[in-house]
Amino acid sequence: MTTLDDRNAVPAPAMPRRPPRPLSLVQILRTRGANSLSLCDEVLFEELLVERRLLGHRLFVVSDPDGVRRVLVDNFENYRRHFLMRRPIAPGLGSGMLIADGALWRRHRRLINPALDHRATLPDVPMIVECTEKLADHLAALPDGEAIDIGNLLSMLVTITVGRVFAGDDSAIQPMLERMAKFPGRRRISDFLPLPDGLRPRAHRIRAEARSWYPLIDRLVGERLRPDYAGGRDLLWRLAHARTADGDSLSRQEVRDEALTLALGGVETTLRPMTWVWYLLSLHPAAEARLHAELDDVLGGCAPTADDLRRLGFLRQVLDETMRLYPPVPVMLRTAAADDVVCGRPIAKHSTIVVAPWIIHRHRQLWDDPDRFEPGRFAPERTASRSRFAYLPFALGPRACIAAPLAMMQLQVAVAVLAQRLRFRPVEGHPIQPVGWTTLRPQHGIRVTVERR
């Protein structure tokens, strides 16, 4: 755990203590799956491919960029989402892309990609700017020195903007997004055991909760399918009208499953780096000053447009470095469906493959001084000389996060709008402790005071 008491120290962004050696099974069980980061021992940050055995089961931690490419791109169909990642959410998401594999997954991905590509997100920029400016007005009006949890306010912002991306001005979708951001709640021991759903009461509760949202989704989708619908082409409209060249489309049940799936990741994936960036900027005043100078030069005090976002190069570097140190999804687990070879190492069928951005982004063979915040790592000339498989905040390959363009645009807008008007200063003595499993978050939040620029 790191605190912010010593302002004179060289800034060292918070991270959990790393065990010097691999943890025993008993030590792993004691963690109760609460924080995957605390399982990452020093060896994993030194070696690019590490094999471990757990109760006789083979596990490979792959950090070598060539190995990452093999698992996530070249032979991705052999490496399916691990049951530990799928099991807690599977009863509620049905055919959703986080659950599906093979032909079903390919079909859904082909249908949904156009609904969330970069071009589809551009019309939402003015709306996100407007919502963020309202938050900036609220923050600027706070009494001097009042401490707030910046993550709580940003969560409201992201939920509202994602809700409008989903369903335009119909705010009835907000409760679903708020709940799905935390779905299905804390993990249970039964999530880790190979029990059929029929023997897991929790699975029935998860399925029932997901189905409780069906009437809302059906109403919203039904409205968008009516011949006299006069609303905008929001995300639900695009899902309902998705067609391939041969006329294939999603069924009503598939639309429900994908709406819930997109809601599951639509808030948290954006919220986490949007929270961490203010913590990092507060520790590094030189980077903050350079960001302010770029915003003043490019925007001149005006609201950013979609064209402006492309001109804010240092802002993008700050966000990329934030997601390097605090990737939204810290660990990805895969299961080998068949024997394979990765970086010359035989991978037996049923082996578990760990591709962990938390490890890869801080690996000593891939990055110089990897635990330090340095946005210049992502300057074009430095990025060009580095493997693209050494940086994967939204994963890579065919199964990369489908909502990454939307998340990136929301992040750019939020920082551009808020940093033009405000600075955030950390509350002294407040502990900053990253924890991660599905997403990477500050366990105790990030408490700050607000200063007007």
Please describe what this structure looks like:
The protein is α+β, with helices and mostly antiparallel strands and 453 residues long. The protein is 45% helix and 11% strand. The chain is built from 20 helices and 12 strands. The protein has helices at 25-31, 65-74, 83-86, 90-93, 102-116, 118-121, 125-140, 150-167, 174-180, 201-211, 214-225, 235-240, 252-266, 268-283, 285-299, 306-311, 313-325, 357-360, 380-383, 404-421, and strands spanning 49-54, 57-62, 79-81, 148-149, 332-336, 340-342, 345-347, 352-355, 422-426, 434-436, 440-442, 447-452. A 5-stranded mixed β-sheet has the order 1-2-8-5-3. The chain has a 3-stranded antiparallel β-sheet with strand order 4-12-9. β10 (434-436) and β11 form a beta hairpin. The longest helix is centred in the middle third of the chain and has 18 residues, at 150-167. The protein is globular, with a radius of gyration of 22 Å. 41% of the residues are buried. Mean pLDDT is 91; it is low at 1-7.
Distinctive features:
alpha+beta; five-stranded mixed β-sheet; 12 strands; 453 residues; globular
